[in-house]
Amino acid sequence: MTGKRVLFVYTRLSTFVKGDMDILEKAYRVTPFCAENTTKSRQLLGLIRLFFYLLANTYKFDIIYVWFADYHSFLPVLFARIFRKKCFVVIGGYDVCRIRSIKYGSFVNPVRGFMAKYSMNNATLCLCVSKHVERIVRHIALKSLCVVLHNGVIFSSASLPKEKRVLSVALSSTKQSFYVKGIDRYIELARFAPDLQFTIIGPDKILLAEMIGEVPSNLEIISRIPQNELSKYYSRSAVYCQLSRSESFAVALAEAMFHNCVPVIANTGGMAEVTGNNGFLVRGDDPEETAAAIREAINLPPSEKYRERIIENFTIEIRAKRLSAILEGSSGKS
Known about the structure:
alpha/beta; 44% helix; Rossmann fold; globular; 6-stranded parallel beta sheet
């Protein structure tokens, strides 16, 4: 461990955010700061706390590390410039998205968009989770410095016999995420193909009932479950299907491929970067096309190529090694 100190700023300790914190704690003295944003009042309070914390403590840190460009990244980037500290901002997808019809993405709100753009333009380096995200950042923030740092997958050892079942994982508790994750597309697909068996894990069941009404008899709906249980579903499913309308990387897709699920995905965002030349790309909004791809995929002979694709490119160890090299070797707006 070096003597360098890192201020780690985040809004929610999701799996991938926790993964980066664990990586950094092995090499640096890390101080986490949660700028909570679950409600507008808590967000305002969190930003006020962040301002005074930065005012009193920025000088103590060698590196400021922020997950997502948003309201909470503006002050860390600003203070990093004032105190001439290195500041790295992970760009995860929502922060470069704008879907006006459902008010989704940082750039739907002009103030939020300004803060995200300022963060991208003035960070020492933007760490983009996919080439797709990097292209958008370079288009939005012309002064930004960017590198691609793919998400890393943490694997489990679950190994169960494959069943002719289609799986999708979509954590969704809002109408926005229901639409963005393409859950409506997946349910329409299940209705169109009653001969196939589908499972979806992660959506809020009350919201789902409100959005879709009667559930197709060939669709199993499971609320959010622990990672070790999720791995069992990956392991025994033949096909993994994701029909998102916006997707920066898709960690669940990578996890499913590690368990040798054949991917059938919408040609959206960074998902094709994960699959490479494996599996099937579909438009996403045509259930007939998607069902045909799934029927072909479900009858393919077993193959290790899906697992090999993930092991060679998207492990947490690869991300850790790459992140360490970036933090120690970067030079830029510090």
